[in-house]
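To whoever picks this up:

The parser on our side crashed when reading a file containing two proteins. I've narrowed it down to the boundary between the first structure block and the second sequence. Both blocks are reproduced below exactly, byte for byte. First block:
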Amino acid sequence: MNTQPDGPEDRLRRLTTIWSRAVFPVTSTSLTRPEFEEQLLPLARRLSGALRARAFDAAEGEAVGAALIGAHCTAPEALSRSLDCVDAYLVLYCGEDGDPEDLRARSGRLQHAMAAGFARALRERTLVEQEAIAQAALRAQGVVAQALHASEARFRAVFEGAAIGIGIADLDGNVLQVNGALLRMFGGSEQSLRVRNVQEWTHADDAPQTWRLYQELVRGEREHYHVEKAFYRPDGTVLWTNLTVSLLRDPDGNPQYQLALMEDTTERRLLNLRLRYEATHDALTGLPNRTLFFERLEKTLNAGEGSRFGLCYLDLDGFKTINDSLGHAAGDRLLVEVADRLQACATAPGEMVARLGGDEFVALTTGADSRSEVDDLATRIMNALLAPIRIDGRELTVRGSIGVVEGPVGERSAAEVLRSADITMYRAKSAGGNRFELADPEADARAITRHGLTTALPAALDRGEFFIEYQPLVHLGDGSVRGAEALVRWLHPQHGVLGPDRFIPLAEHTGLIVPLGRWVMEQSVRQAREWRERHGEGTSGPLRINVNLSPCQLGHPGLVQDTVDILERAGVTPDALCLEVTESALIGADDDLLKPLRRLADMGVDIALDDFGTGYSNLANLRRLPVSVLKLDRSFTQGMQQFPADPVDLKIVEGIVALAHSLDLAVTVEGVETGAQAEQLRILGCDTAQGWYYARPGPPDRLHELALADATG
């Protein structure tokens, strides 16, 4: 048995088979069903490509709709069944590895485009047929003018047998003749149509140019025109038509009659309206969806000067927990209830509520005093969520975070407004949720910058935009340089040199910290080898490089092997490397987390406990950690920068140093900025120090100069 999963072509074939079985029974074609299926296969392939394309192209869907007409699928049922098939199976068979919500939205837009292409192609085909009938009618009418008795039978056959409505009127608008199809379309008697003048058949939805074109035609200034026009039937219902009106001339070329050809498009229009509704409204809640909301927002933002708007972007707090614990069906029912409550909040003129997707909703308001109106709207929304929602006998408490954007129209695009609201909403969520925050341009700019840095990080490593500066580690006893700490920098093309505090958290969040940390270790160990080759062992021992290790790297399964490979390639012994791990990363660490550090320590790599004193760890835990160096946080030594030093700080540092030395741990102090501070730390027994008092972080040659001066001095 073949257990291999279906490939993309197999899934595409399956979709095409389902489509052909649905549409073939209502298609007028001489092909067999398998032949018809082969005709649909390239159309399914185009839909699949449009679904997964990077940029959405409505023209692909329109082309598929038009191609259905070319395949003789002209019945309304053919379109309806095709759209149902695309809605049910396109994402299922062709949407692998994509975001289901985005794919469903794109599938809906493709269905709308298919319907538009189908309607346009059917209309063009009908126009061709209408033109042929019109030409026949013109020819017949000309024959009538020359020899009525010889052509009456032929003209009457065309007139009465036509499937579209035909009417003839004089230039004053008096109806002279109507055929049976026209009578059936209007549902009245011939007399009821003939007593009305053409110019009385107005409708509120008539396009502005409709009657201007009519006047130009009866004056003989144009030969024909085509419009979409609505008519009132005798029973008050509305008939929508594609109307073509042509001018009939006598043998001398003078205008004599007007000929109207009407195609009933009422059902097609209702279908398009239904498709439009489905494409612009959320299927679950019935609220306007992202598409319709963006249309409304863009229209609002393009209003005249002096107008203002307010927008509330709502995201439910903890909705994923409800889905995970009670199931998606319960989550859907909760969303429906939330949508109903939000809809009840937006009842004032100019207010609108939409669902953007998932548990994200948006409310829009307009008005001269939009600031107070949007604050009031956000408050109403928060109050509407206070009452618990009962689902399956449970009372669920619903809370939400709202980002509020308010301001004058015309200054920002719809995408910019929504992005600002989204950023502000996450700021409200980060502040604890169940609240609303007003957009802050400066906060937006910081968030956008963070996002830009995050997306640029992977390419920055490939392009070599990172470099390393080194800050020397100095022995407090004899002042000799014992090594350096490697500090990575990012030379950003737009923002200049960025310190690690700007991008290391982003790298940890994205997982890029592992390859970036590996690169830093490779460069630093190679630099340590160069220093050792230039300085030898020296009286103070070989120079050592300190490299920071993030919690993500600590948990990476390849840490030990990567370190071994880097040391072997560089040709240096493990004692050339010291890995610095923050105290907070090791608080409560189990044996599995400590195992890699123990293996590295057993190899001879020094492990330093960085930022010691900030993690509130139990000092007794030090004996179970595989560390050889304690690196005191600078907060303990700031009080020693001036004389006399803070006695409390002195006691704390003295106790830590005594404890460390009793456990055979060396003590390093960072942030040393004054000579008095360095001297006090020396007296307290600290082993090494680093800080601006000795040197700021710089290129590797600076450390070489300091080490050389130490050796010769």
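<<boundary where parser fails>>
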Amino acid sequence: MSLLGGIRPPIAALSALLLALAALTAFQLGHVGKGTVPPAVLTSQEHFAEDGAIALRASLDESVTDIGRTASLFTAGEPVSPDSVLDKLGNVYQKWRGTAVIEIKSGRLEAQRGENLPLTALDLTTLNAPNGLAPRMVRLENGETRLLTLALLSWQGHPQQLLVASSSLKVPGVSLGQGRAIAVLDAAGQVLDSSGVGSSGRERKQLDAFAKTTAQKAKQHPLQSKEPGSGGFPGVSGSLLGDAASGHRSVAGYAKLAGPAPGEGTDATALGLTVVSFVSVAEQRSAVGDSFFWLAAAGALLVLGALAVALLVVTVQRPLLQLFLESRRIGRGDLHRPVTLPKYGEAARIGAALDRLRRQSLGEPGSPTDSPRPGRRGRIGSRALLAVCAVLLLVWSAPLLLTLNRAGTSVKVPQTIVDDQRERTDTLADRVRRALNEGHADLTSVASVLTAKATPAELTGVLERTRSEHARYESLYVLKSDGSIMARAGGTPHHTGTKAASREPVTVIDSGHEPVITEYAEAPALGGAVVVGELRMDFINALLRRPGMGEVRVVDAKHRVIGSNSGYRAFTKLPDAELDALVTSANQKSGKGPGPHSSVLRHGGTSIAAAAPMTGGGVAQPLGWTVVTVQPAKGLEIAAYTTQNRTVLAGLLGLTGAAACLGWLHIIVVRPLRALAERAEALADGDRRTVLYPTHHDEVGAVTRSLEVIRQQLQEQRKRDAGGGTGRTPGRTTPAGRN
């Protein structure tokens, strides 16, 4: 017999599967909502920290790029004084706390702006070493930490100089909301900078505890810190539970600075910084998890499963095994005892045919009318019995799949998650605004160093270098006051004809298939010409891709969609009137003025929506853009949805297991058994020519082989009868000498 064939393995597998599923249902699936903090709240804190890590990494890398590009632009032109370098740098960028120019050979300070820099911490003799110009962190006397960014200023015939810019390690543009704190840690877990941490000793103590734990977890490999297939943030991130007091518990998220793609490092990621954010949430136990329901479901599965297995054993397995034994007996020549006929299905038909063959082997009449036939119950086929078993198991699986434990639209969403959605949306809006402002500042920096003596080829070279250093631009070009283009780099400009440049620093036009965001910066030395940069729409859309925020859209002042993290049609209206109203309320100027708003939407399913206008100043604010996010609540680890998902999972497991085992039984046993019944009846009706071949090496195959032996015996018997011609019983002879 084959180990995987026969009647026993499918029934045994079905029994084991139902027992395992009953145990899983009773002891594992019902453990929902046992914790005091929903898992969705922990995940939300992790995403919040990831937003902070992305913002800090982008800010630090942008600062390094800006310093290096500015130094290269100055170096490419005529020599200028250190004071001119710092003045132009300060006019274009206002993000550094202090700047300075140092003559490298003598170590003399040539010029300085802003706060005093810790220049004694710089070793000027190691600048030529590998990574000698890499950013470095230094600690001031007051305990604060600064990041120093370096670049070289070199002109032929002039002493080489070092441009130094100092910036804090505060996470930029992160909206903390109420009661939240955020901190930046070094690789050893020491707090370098923090915001929102109160003066109470408890909060400081909690931050120190989180910092110590985070320092250990941040040492993990990114692939080992997450569940397989989780995707999202490319670096190490997670969540932590803190101490509880007065019915509240501190919940933290942490994220180590990581590159824009897995395995891709930057100057900022080399610093080994980690962002930690934490907030105090109210503890509450969910009443959704009903242990009695799961115990009852497991009991019902055991009862229905026992009925199904018993039905298969009584009506399919036992008759087939009995038929197997009877066929072997008849094949060995034991013909005097009648065949014990099964009562059901194809086994009854085969048994009746086998008994007819027995009688034919004894020389009795083989007419179908004289042979025993299966009774009325014998008409019930094995397929019908399998269908009854499937119905029994479907009675348990179908309600779990379709009706029981449905969450509905009245699910209570934790307020912390709603607040996090609002603050994250506000942070994302600020990041889009900063990206547009940074792009305009880059253009202004380029325009400030262009001279009237520059040839179109030299202008093109400057534009090419700028575009290679900043991936945000689709095309860069210099536009004269009469609308003609002096030089360009990248794609074909959308500016056509003799139309002069816009007076607005940032504009959005419809190109026919996507929005074109165009920024303008005046070049004073070129007589009214402007440097124009057209931003890639993919650059804006990439900023909107955040795990755990759902669908993100950017809409203009008319509530038309400009960008999205998923497929969209440009300049179309928002798909929901509630979202439109949310954008309107977020841009209201009464009271405290425009600000982020969030709401739980119940129309068409529960979802968390938030809208945040771009505020904070800069050339991007007049655009009137608003970031809108919609996160379906069913994707969150809330107790009601977890219970619903586990209920569906249990039903799906039951349905899949039943289909697999019953399908296995149908293919291996029932279908060959039906074919064998037809062949056995044909053999009993007189078909001696058709050879019977077994399909599988199992009980059905054994019965087939026995019938083939009987067919051969009957064929030999017919040959003997035809050869003797006496009509007497084989083996009897007439004694010699008698008449």
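After patching the parser it read the second block fine. The radius of gyration is 41 Å. Confidence is low (pLDDT under 50) at residues 367-371, 726-739.
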